[in-house]
Design a protein that fits this description.
281 residues; alpha/beta; two-stranded antiparallel ribbon; 11 helices; 10 strands; globular; NADP; oxidoreductase activity; Aldo/keto reductase; EC 1.1.1.-
């Protein structure tokens, strides 16, 4: 496993396991246990995923020492604001059966996210959270929060994949020393990612799948990735991306796939914002 060092010195695996949309408790617990057996130690969940308890049970059952894990959760919009956020983070720790969290992110830049961040800063200073950060913060809101906070976000988790490479946002995060993390590294299969001819051609050279090439591209750009799958064979495939390296030419060909646009949603669209803020209310 390779690691990135966050702006406070905490080391974070560059490859983790995501549990978005794995809501059935038994299935989620099974998937996390499978991932741990494969070798994953970074697990990414969220309050709105409604599976923190299942993740916690899997961590306990695994028998792996707590200090080997890097556990991330995210505060949802309905829990925004200082008091509610602080209480919700403690609730997340209880559900996960953990005494501390490795990373807590603000899930979306809506509601009183400044109050949420103040609560996170306080818990960070108390040692209950090892690192704090953001998710889905576009450059404008990201810079605004950075400039008016005591603790620079360690991570900003945004949609990042071969078709939306976030080059501009990545550069801005580098300026402030915030680690970029990808959600949706496979673009959830959109744009026919798994059969993309460029990725297939490059993968054939290394006897690797298009998925492995897509992950390797992001990893070589120092992007943390958290692919999600419920299939153990796919977990193993996604994990085996450290035994080959893309050339400069390979990287250039994949860089040319960038459209610079989201394949999912825009926070600049009022209807999208209304939809998102009503989730999990």
């Amino acid at each position: 496993m390779e690691f990135v060092t966050l702006n406070n010195g905490v080391k974070m695996p560059i490859l983790g396991f995501g549990v978005y949309q794995i809501q059935d408790p038994a299935e989620c617990e099974r998937c996390v246990l499978d991932a741990i057996r494969v070798g994953y130690r970074s697990i990414d969940t969220a309050q709105v995923y409604q599976n923190e308890e299942a993740v916690g049970r899997a961590i306990k059952k695994s028998g792996v020492p707590r200090e080997e894990f890097f556990i991330t959760t995210k505060v949802w919009i309905s829990n925004a604001g200082y008091d509610k956020a602080k209480a919700s983070i403690q609730e997340s720790m209880d559900k996960l059966q953990l005494d501390y969290l490795d990373l807590v992110l603000i899930h979306q830049p809506f509601n009183d996210y400044y109050g949420t961040y103040r609560a996170m800063e306080e818990l960070y200073k108390e040692g209950k959270i090892r690192a704090i950060g953001l998710s889905n913060f576009y450059p404008d809101r990201y810079v605004d929060l950075v400039e008016f906070s005591e603790v620079v976000p360690a991570v900003n988790q945004v949609e990042t994949h071969v078709f939306n490479q976030q080059a501009k946002a990545h550069e801005i995060m580098k300026k402030y020393n915030t680690q970029i993390e990808s959600w949706g590294p496979f673009a959830e299969g959109k744009n026919h990612l798994f059969t993309n001819s460029t990725l297939q051609e490059i993968g054939d050279k290394y006897n690797k799948s298009t998925a492995q090439v897509a992950l390797r591209f992001l990893i070589q750009r120092d992007v943390v990735v958290i692919p999600k799958t419920v299939n153990k064979n796919r977990m193993e495939e996604n994990f085996n991306v450290f035994d080959f390296k893309l050339t400069v030419e390979d990287m250039g060909k994949i860089a040319a796939l960038d459209t610079g646009e989201s394949l999912f949603f825009s926070h600049y669209d009022p209807q999208t914002v209304e939809y998102i803020i009503n989730l999990g209310k």
